[in-house]
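Hi R.,

As promised on Friday, here is the backbone we talked about, encoded as structure tokens. Could you run it through your design pipeline when you get a chance and send me back a sequence?
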């Protein structure tokens, strides 16, 4: 276990005696690295460095296609559009640097930093010089409320490691539509994005879909026309006052979001918003009805000019005029106005997208549509060559950290006050995690509710479309502590409200952790008997959509042969304390009344707490020294009630349980939970936001014991005396 340097952030600790918002100020971020105070830093746009290429209008941003840019800590760097770090390019961020994202005019334009496949981020923050991404309005003076969420997009990293996407089950890509993220087998589009350019994609194309041709795309702008199809009855397509235009055949790969569109009834300056099948949604309402065979004109600039690779094909409907990028005017022709695949390839599970350490991402998140959001930190097919440690997500509008496939490992991560899930994994993530902390905002009976859409501690997915594609998600997690807010009512797409919500055939291993103050400790999403494949039984002992050999669906007799000995979901040696229900099957409604609630005497439950050595404690005060009670004033950020995440004495691992394996990543920890009960032996930096706020008890040494020797005496005074009268910011 990593020890904290008790002298790091000394002035921050001394500052805890100050009352008011000023005690939460972080104006001296990076001072230990020689960085000026935040107030004395000049402001500069990131795009003033390097050479950037304008992407098509629908991408709402620019791309750094080559070279290296370095953000230094003497400036406040502004992120005022989507910025893409292209393959072969690197963005380096010095310790102590602050980056601010601005509010966008629309969700689709949410400001974000995207690391493309082959690009790199080098952000080696340190314990006393973290790197901070935050909202433009946050002056880091302690007055910006933790209730501010979704003020900019987030940080997204795309890699080439394994995922389980298939075009048949997960495509073709439709923005925000039911997990339709795939543009080819193994190649997906970032969640929360309306465009589908190569810059927005993760993974690799394992196959080229039918209807493609290999060629070289045109350069510059294009102009082509298509004929309108007949209006679809009941859907108001082509009708005056509506925003849907019908074509005679499916076009999701041939017309691009953001293109200019004109013709009968289409107002000037109208653009394509989205495409679903042969229906195009446009940005302005039709001023006149469009009849079948009316001419519709599309204009734009191709996003991959001069590129050689695989492109989609379609049958154009005459007439076809202008400078359309086609090989003919009728019949099947190559269209360069759509999805592009460099080649078929293989996954690279050792892919390296760079380094992020001691990075705080605050007030982020953008909800394009329910179920399609930009998260605080998105890791999409990121490989194990990437280092992600000491990451903090504060007040995110959606999932705090979400992983879409990949093999990347995460360690020393914190999520605070966010909406939706603390940690969400999907599409075959198989990495490792250790020392993961999460705490929800309060959900008091009176006063302002912070984060009403709070959901799960861990949402464990394999595929939102329930295709049961392999590889399944099978991460290994040790030493987590996640604390909910006792929320019991569903909101938006947040129906889990569980410390662990297992669904969609998700696997994984959870050991030596503490889960507290959720409606359910563990919930298996459904109790269905099949996996969605006709005639394929999952056996009576599988917990709904997740495979756990010890959980009969309706309390039936465990069938020892079910699952063929393949227990993909292992939940062992954990402590569940103060949750309304310990283990449920199918809880996803306003109350778990329609679910199966397992209890003592049920074969599966008895094995869960017996053979698997899990402990379920109903009382919220059932662990000495541990408390999930928490409340914060959203106006002043003052903590009303602190939680305490360090049981005292420490929770023993228990008989049949062991520490994490010594494999070069995991570290020994002979206790349950993310934090040691030994003073000074914990990993939260004094600059992490929970420590700045003083939100959590038990993770810091006695603040007057400045030299960490266990007592407060003259030696501590001699450390303090030279600092007397200095600023505590």
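Update: got your reply. Pasting your designed sequence below so it's all in one thread:
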């Amino acid at each position: 276990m990593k020890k904290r340097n008790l002298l790091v952030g000394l002035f921050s600790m001394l500052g805890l005696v100050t009352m008011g918002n000023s005690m939460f100020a972080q104006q001296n971020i990076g001072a230990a690295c020689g960085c000026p105070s935040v107030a004395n830093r000049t402001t500069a746009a990131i795009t003033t460095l390097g050479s950037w290429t304008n992407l098509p209008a629908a991408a709402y941003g620019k791309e750094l296609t080559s070279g290296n840019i370095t953000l230094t800590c003497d400036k406040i760097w502004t992120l005022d559009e989507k910025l893409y770090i292209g393959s072969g390019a690197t963005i380096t961020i010095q310790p102590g640097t602050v980056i601010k994202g601005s509010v966008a005019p629309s969700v689709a334009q949410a400001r974000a930093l995207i690391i493309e496949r082959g690009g790199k981020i080098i952000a080696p923050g340190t314990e006393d010089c973290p790197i901070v991404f935050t909202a433009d309005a946050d002056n880091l003076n302690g007055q910006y409320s933790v209730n501010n969420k979704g003020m900019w997009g987030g940080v997204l990293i795309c890699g080439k490691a394994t995922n389980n996407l298939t075009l048949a089950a997960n495509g073709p890509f439709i923005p925000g539509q039911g997990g339709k993220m795939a543009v080819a087998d193994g190649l997906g589009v970032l969640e929360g994005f309306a465009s589908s350019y190569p810059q927005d994609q993760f993974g690799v194309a394992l196959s080229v879909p039918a209807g493609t041709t290999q060629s070289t795309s045109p350069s510059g702008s294009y102009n082509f026309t298509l004929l309108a199809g007949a209006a679809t009855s009941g859907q108001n397509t082509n009708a005056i006052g509506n925003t849907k235009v019908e074509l005679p055949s499916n076009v999701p790969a041939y017309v691009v979001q953001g293109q200019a569109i004109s013709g009968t009834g289409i107002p000037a300056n109208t653009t394509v918003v989205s495409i679903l099948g042969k229906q195009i949604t446009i940005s302005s309402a039709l001023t006149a009805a469009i009849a079948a065979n009316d001419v519709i004109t599309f204009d734009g600039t191709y996003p991959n000019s001069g590129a050689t690779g695989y492109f989609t094909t379609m049958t154009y409907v005459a007439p076809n005029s202008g400078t359309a990028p086609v090989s003919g005017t009728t019949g099947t022709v190559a269209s360069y106005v759509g999805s592009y695949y460099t080649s078929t390839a293989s996954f690279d599970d050792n892919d390296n997208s760079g380094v992020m350490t001691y990075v705080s991402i605050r007030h982020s998140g953008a909800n394009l549509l329910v179920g399609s959001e930009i998260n605080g930190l998105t890791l999409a097919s990121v490989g194990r060559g990437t280092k992600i440690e000491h990451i903090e997500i504060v007040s995110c509008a959606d999932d705090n950290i979400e992983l879409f496939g990949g093999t990347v490992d995460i360690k020393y991560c914190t999520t605070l006050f966010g909406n939706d899930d603390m940690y969400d994994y999907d599409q075959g993530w198989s990495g490792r995690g250790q020392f993961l902390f999460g705490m929800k905002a309060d959900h008091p009976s009176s006063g302002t509710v912070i984060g009403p859409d709070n959901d799960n501690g861990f949402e464990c997915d394999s595929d939102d479309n329930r295709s049961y594609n392999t590889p399944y998600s099978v991460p290994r997690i040790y030493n987590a502590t996640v604390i909910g807010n006792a929320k019991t009512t569903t909101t938006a797409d947040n129906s889990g409200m569980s410390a662990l919500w297992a669904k969609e055939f998700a696997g994984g291993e959870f050991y030596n952790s503490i889960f507290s103050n959720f409606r359910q400790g563990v919930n298996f999403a459904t109790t269905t008997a099949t996996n969605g494949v006709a005639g394929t039984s999952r056996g009576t002992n599988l917990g709904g959509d997740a495979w756990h050999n010890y959980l009969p669906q309706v309390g039936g007799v465990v069938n020892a042969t079910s699952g063929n000995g393949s227990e993909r979901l292992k939940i062992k040696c954990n402590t569940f304390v103060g949750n309304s229900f310990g283990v449920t099957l199918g809880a996803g409604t306003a109350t778990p009344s329609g679910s199966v609630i397992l209890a003592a005497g049920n074969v599966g439950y008895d094995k869960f707490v017996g053979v698997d050595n899990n402990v379920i404690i109903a009382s919220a005060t059932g662990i000495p020294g541990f408390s999930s009670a928490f409340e914060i004033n959203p106006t002043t950020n003052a903590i009303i009630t602190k939680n305490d995440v360090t049981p005292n004495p420490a929770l023993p691992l228990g008989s049949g349980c062991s520490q994490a394996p010594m494999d070069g990543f995991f570290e020994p920890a002979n206790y349950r939970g993310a934090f040691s009960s030994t003073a000074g032996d914990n990993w939260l930096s004094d600059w992490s936001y929970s420590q700045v706020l003083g939100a959590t008890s038990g993770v810091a040494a006695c603040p007057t014991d400045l030299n960490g020797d266990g007592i407060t005496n003259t030696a501590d005074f001699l450390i303090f005396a030279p600092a007397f009268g200095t600023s505590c910011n």
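One thing I noticed while checking it: The chain is about 5% helix and 30% strand.

Thanks again,
M.
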